[in-house]
Design the sequence.
C-alpha cells in the first residue's frame, strides 16, 4: 500500500509514469519512507535534500554560500517526522475552519505554522503535497475572481495547526492586507511563517512587500522555493544563489537555509515536513544548529 501512495512522487522525480494509488487507505509513513531509503544515494539526495543535490553541481572548492547544514536532520528523524503527517484514528488530520478576520479564527492552544505567497506561487499544491500522507484532507482552494479569500486552518493531530493564508498579488481582496497583517502581527501561537517564492521567476515585487511585512513585525520566517522541477539546473542554481544572497544581506528574521521544493516530484517535501515537526516542538532532531 505504501508503495502505491509514494510512487506518484518518486516516479515523477525519476521520469517513470505517475501511478496513482487509491487515495482512501491508511498506511504507514514509515513504510513509505522505507521505500525512499531504498533509492540509490544520488536519487535519494535529489528527493530528500534538493539543496544539497544542487550544491553538488558546483566545482569543488568554489564554495558558494548555500547554507546546507543549519537544518540537516538524519534520515531517521525525517522518517519520524513523517508519522506526524500520517492520518490515523489516533492522529486526525483535517480541515478545521476558515476565517476572514482574526477574531473569527479558532482559539487554539496548539502551535501554528502559516503559509503565505503570491497567487499562483504553488501554495495549494505544496499544502496538498505536505498532506499527501493524509489523503482524506480536503485542501480548500478558492480562486474564483471576486470570491472572498479566507484563512484556512488544518489540524495536524494534537501536534500543530497548519494555516493557509490567502494568496496576495493579482486579484487579492481589498481587505487582504488587513487580514494577513493582523494575523501575522497578533497571532500568539504562530511559530513560523513559510513564505513561498516561485523559483522560476525569483523574488517579485509582491514578494518583497510580504518580506518587508515579516521583517517589520520581526517574525521568524522561512523562504520556500516552489516548482523546482520546472527550471533547468543552471537556471535554478542561478535563482537559488540570488535568493540566498538576498536572504544573507537583506533580511534579519529569515531562516538562513532555503527550502527548495517541488509539489510535482515531492522533492524537498520530506525535509520540510521534518522542519515543521521540529519547530513546532514535536520532534527533537539532532540536525538543528540554529533556531
Ligand atoms: P496557488 O495559487 O499558490 O495555490 O498555486 P497552485 O498550487 O494552484 O499552483 C499554480 C500553478 O502552478 C498550477 O498550475 C500548478 O499545477 C502549478 N504548480 C504548483 N506547484 C508546482 C510544482 O511544484 N511544479 C510544477 N511544475 N508546477 C506546479
Sequence:
Amino acid at each position: 500500500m505504501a508503495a502505491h501512495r509514494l510512487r506518484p512522487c518518486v516516479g515523477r522525480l525519476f521520469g517513470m509514469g505517475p501511478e496513482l494509488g487509491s487515495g482512501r487507505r491508511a498506511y504507514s509513513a514509515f513504510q513509505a519512507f522505507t521505500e525512499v531509503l531504498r533509492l540509490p544515494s544520488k536519487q535519494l539526495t535529489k528527493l530528500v535534500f534538493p539543496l544539497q543535490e544542487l550544491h553538488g553541481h558546483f566545482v569543488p572548492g568554489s564554495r558558494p554560500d548555500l547554507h546546507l547544514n543549519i537544518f540537516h536532520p538524519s534520515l531517521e528523524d525525517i522518517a519520524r517526522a513523517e508519522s506526524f503527517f500520517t492520518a490515523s484514528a489516533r492522529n486526525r488530520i483535517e480541515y478545521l475552519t476558515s476565517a476572514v478576520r482574526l477574531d473569527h479564527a479558532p482559539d487554539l492552544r496548539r502551535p501554528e505554522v502559516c503559509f503565505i505567497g503570491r497567487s499562483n506561487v504553488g501554495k495549494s499544491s505544496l499544502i496538498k503535497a505536505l498532506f499527501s500522507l493524509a489523503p482524506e484532507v480536503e485542501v480548500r482552494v478558492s480562486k474564483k475572481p471576486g470570491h472572498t479569500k479566507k484563512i484556512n486552518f488544518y489540524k495536524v493531530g494534537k501536534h500543530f495547526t497548519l494555516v493557509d493564508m490567502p494568496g496576495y498579488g493579482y486579484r487579492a481582496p481589498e481587505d487582504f492586507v488587513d487580514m494577513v497583517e493582523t494575523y501575522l502581527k497578533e497571532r500568539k501561537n504562530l511559530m513560523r511563517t513559510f513564505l513561498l517564492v516561485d523559483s522560476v521567476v525569483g523574488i517579485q515585487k509582491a514578494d518583497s512587500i510580504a518580506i518587508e511585512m515579516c521583517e517589520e513585525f520581526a517574525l521568524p520566517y522561512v523562504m520556500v522555493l516552489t516548482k523546482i522541477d520546472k527550471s533547468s539546473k543552471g537556471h535554478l542554481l542561478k535563482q537559488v544563489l540570488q535568493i540566498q544572497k538576498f536572504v544573507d544581506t537583506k533580511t534579519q528574521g529569515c531562516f538562513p537555509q532555503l527550502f527548495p521544493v517541488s509539489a510535482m516530484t515531492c522533492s524537498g517535501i520530506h525535509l520540510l515536513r521534518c522542519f515543521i515537526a521540529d519547530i513546532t516542538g514535536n520532534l527533537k532532531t539532532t540536525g538543528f544548529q540554529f533556531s
In short: The first helix runs from residue 2 to 13. The pocket of guanosine-5'-diphosphate is lined by residues 117, 119-125, 167, 226-227, 229-230, 262-264 (CB under 6 Å). Residues 33-280 form a domain with the Rossmann fold fold (CATH 3.40.50.300).
